[in-house]
Amino acid sequence: MAETANDLRTLRQSREWSQGRLAQEMGVSRQTINAIETGRFDPSLPLALRLARVFGRTVEEIFALKE
Amino acid sequence: MAETANDLRTLRQSREWSQGRLAQEMGVSRQTINAIETGRFDPSLPLALRLARVFGRTVEEIFALKE
DNA sequence: ACGTTATGACAAGTGTCCTTGACACGGCGC
DNA sequence: GCGCCGTGTCAAGGACACTTGTCATAACGT
Predict the structure, then answer these.
(1) Which distant-in-sequence residues (6+ apart) come within 8 Å of B28 by Cβ?
(2) Average pLDDT for chain B
(3) What proportion of chain B, given as a percentage, has pLDDT over 90?
(4) Is A4 helix (H, G, I), strand (E, B) or coil?
(5) Are A33 and A26 in contact (CB under 8 A)?
(6) What phi and psi, each to the nearest 5 degrees, are found at residue A44?
(7) What is the pTM of this model?
(8) Residues B45, A26, B64, A8: what is their CA dihedral angle, to the nearest 10 degrees?
(9) Cα separation of A22 and A15, whole Å?
(10) Chain A residues near residue B53 by CB distance under 8 angstroms
(11) Are B19 and B34 contacting, i.e. CB atoms less than 8 angstroms apart?
């Protein structure tokens, strides 16, 4: 227990990356990362897979289905 | 070893479901399931999560990143 | 005070996911 | 033969992911 939280923002911050830095690692724009972190939309499946991979988590751990 | 294959079509067929049946389980149209199975497009993240859940697999197991 | 960085958010445009409705084909049962 | 089912695919439209460009604000160092 006491694992690190699995929301995208926390994972990014624990690596001390800016949104812009993560965006270029993922090959998307900074606005896209910001929109995902602020919940304005879901990532596409390929982006979700890349995000999960870079943070060593499963897609399910980072992006839970609501209800 | 000798685990069942993890592509969507095989998972669906092992349950003896038609595309239409899976579609209504997932709440999408038959054409959507068909397009995903035939590789015409990727599912959205929420649909990928529901598909993984219904087949007892992780998203990563069913939908691998290409290259 | 000034410049820089990080973040949040908008607008307009493009492409993709997903819809309904349709059509064609092959396999099967009758 | 006929009908039914499962599948593949198209077209037109709506909703959403993602783009570039821009603006605003707060925090920081000098």
Answers:
(1) B47
(2) 93
(3) 87
(4) coil
(5) yes
(6) -65, 165
(7) 0.92
(8) -50
(9) 10
(10) 65
(11) yes
- B32 Cβ contacts chain C strand, under 7 Å: yes
Query: Cα separations (Å) of B6 from A19, A32, A50, B13, B65?
Result: 34, 30, 19, 11, 14
Residue A57 pLDDT more than 90?
yes
Tell me the residue type at B56: G
Which residues from the 16-35 window of protein chain A have CB within 7 angstroms of nucleic acid chain C? 18-21, 30-31, 34
Question: Domains plus CATH for chain A?
Answer: 4-60 (1.10.260.40)
**CB-based contacts of A11, cutoff 8 Å, min separation 6:** A4, A5, A55, A57, A62
Instruction: Choose among B67, B60, B52: nearest CA to B11.
Output: B52
For residue B59, say whether its CB is under 7 Å from any atom of strand C: no
pLDDT band at B65 (very low <50, low <70, confident <90, very high): confident
In A 8-67, which Cβ lie closer than 7 Å to strand D? 27-29, 31-32, 35-36, 41-44, 46-47
Half-sphere exposure of B48 (CA within 13 A, CB side): 27
